[in-house]
Design goal:
Order of helices and strands: EEEHEHEHEHH
Radius of gyration: 15 Å
Number of strands: 6
Distance between the termini: 18 Å
Structural class: alpha/beta
Strand order of the largest sheet: 1-2-3-4-5-6
Largest sheet: 6 strands, mixed
Strand content: 15-25%
Shape: globular
Low-confidence stretches: 136-142
Length: 145
């Protein structure tokens, strides 16, 4: 595993083609568009053009509509996104948001499958299935690059 850090997040490149995104515990400031752009630039650098699944640990704090829109629309080459939520209320709000805005293409016209989870193990299993669906031998393809 390899870790990359920004001011707000840590990105863990796992050996199974999943990138885990974790908020830094010492980050107490509000997230801004500038922080979001910094985070995604680091992700692009970390994955270096290789397709990966994203495992996102969603914090229990407010995220503005502007930031949700940015994260939903930015193209970073992810195969799928599994969002792990820490509360039932967050899952209800998240499901409502995705029903209203989900399924829209990102800035390159690609729709990235996204699903909400309470259970980390189930999220990882779903991501691995999505990676497999994306193309046989994705791990081997990434190793060649």
């Amino acid at each position: 595993m390899i870790e990359y850090k920004t001011r707000a997040m840590t990105f863990i490149l796992r050996e199974d083609d999943i990138v885990e995104l974790v908020n830094n515990q010492d980050w107490k400031e509000s997230d801004t568009l500038e922080i979001a752009v910094e985070n995604m630039m680091m992700v692009k650098k970390a994955i270096d053009g290789k397709s990966r699944g994203f495992l996102v640990n969603v914090p229990n704090r407010y995220v503005s509509k502007e930031l949700l829109h940015y994260y939903q629309n930015v193209e970073v080459g992810d195969v799928a996104r599994a969002l792990i939520l820490n509360s039932f209320a967050a899952k209800i709000v998240g499901n409502l948001y995705f029903k209203l805005s989900g399924g829209k293409p990102n800035e390159t016209g690609r729709i990235v499958p996204t699903k909400l989870f309470n259970n980390r193990k189930q999220a990882i299993e779903w991501l691995l299935d999505e990676i497999e669906k994306c193309g046989e031998g994705l791990i081997q393809q990434n190793e060649k690059q």
